[in-house]
Amino acid sequence: MTEEGYDRYMDLNLKSAYFTVQKSLPYLSDGASVILIGSSAAHRAAPGMAIYSAAKAAIISLAKGLSLDLLSRNIRVNTLSPGSIDTPVFGKLVPEEHLEQVKQTWIDMIPVGKQGLPSDIGKAADFLAKVCRFSLHRPSCTAGIWNDLSAAADSLERIC
């Protein structure tokens, strides 16, 4: 990877998240919720994905740091770390003739045996923003790698 390519990955995956949060802070009410999008790649190495994985791991670390920085305003910061989500990005990264094979490789690594949908991420983010409330007596909610939203909701209700 070139230095320019590295910078593009970090700009897209880390820098943009940081500055979006920074610029939005004056508009967020105390007690608001910030939800960043990580990736299962931050938790599991895969060939050819070192820089992407590092950028997404940095998002998780950023969320932890921002949570502490925004504690005085009771602003919750969480990260969703989805597994493989069926989006058009696959078609941009993988030649058409290999697309289904690559998708199947990712599906084979997921315990539920299917790719998530963008709407799954939206539902999980909505759940975190509306249902989970910050408390000084228990940890803030953390969403992990879930492709089954109902299981995620049940798990989060138990810890929130």
UniProtKB/TrEMBL annotation:
InterPro entries: NAD(P)-bd_dom_sf, Sc_DH/Rdtase_CS, SDR_fam. It comes from the Bacteria. SUPFAM superfamilies: NAD(P)-binding Rossmann-fold domains. Pfam families: adh_short_C2. Belongs to the short-chain dehydrogenases/reductases (SDR) family. This is NAD(P)-dependent dehydrogenase (Short-subunit alcohol dehydrogenase family). It comes from Dyadobacter fermentans.
